[in-house]
Amino acid sequence: MERKPGKIYLIPTPIGETDVYDVMPEANRAVIRALDYFIVENTRSARRFLSRAGIGKPIDDLRFAELNEHTRPEELDGLLRPVLEGTDAGILSEAGVPAVADPGADAVALAHRHGVEVIPLVGPSSILLAVMASGLNGQSFAFNGYLPVKQPERNRAIRFFESRALKEGQSQAFIEAPYRNEKLLADLLATCAPGTRLTIAADLLGPEQYIRTRTVAAWKGEQPPVHKRPAIFILGR
Fold first, then answer.
1. Model pLDDT, residue 21
2. Is residue 1 part of a domain?
3. Bond prior to 152 in cis (omega within 30° of 0)
4. Cα–Cα distance between 233 and 237 in angstroms, integer?
5. In terms of domains, do 201 and 229 share one?
6. Rounded to whole angstroms, how far apart are CA atoms 225 and 185?
């Protein structure tokens, strides 16, 4: 008799310095306590998170497989093999929800191809939190990941997303490496029309959380605290 495959649980982790118990429902902890195999972006931080979550079993008894930017496509099958053999698995991101702007999406796609059940769990998403708090259109929005680093591609991308935000009313969200946030902000303010609204949401759920929506004209002359802080930027009308 062919063995039934296990399930994959998508387990959100805290954002920034948020305490585990502030963002993890008891139902999530019950799932984690039942798992022995985890597909993670980084083993060290995953072990630290599980220890803080109080899973009630020795961390050294758990199995970890890493899925990150260094994982080769041909290695994916090996990550899923325990699940196909009947073991339930949890996927952990470094922060927030897995498989959204996160390499865990590759494992989820492979799971679907093999008919493995995928179960997303409730938890914090910096993208949704920023949209919720922006005051911009939450009925229609797009997350566009990272903008190009080099010019003129970056300014072309900014103008394209601003055009969509203004003409279609679709809020346009994106991110940048924290150490490049100030350069991105300068490019936004130099490129966008004065009346375009811009949300900056930094350190979401953290003690120094910063969320403001202003017109581009109003942002000029201000110095929002975004340097080396994880941030979401959203353009809207």
1. 77
2. no
3. yes
4. 14
5. yes
6. 11
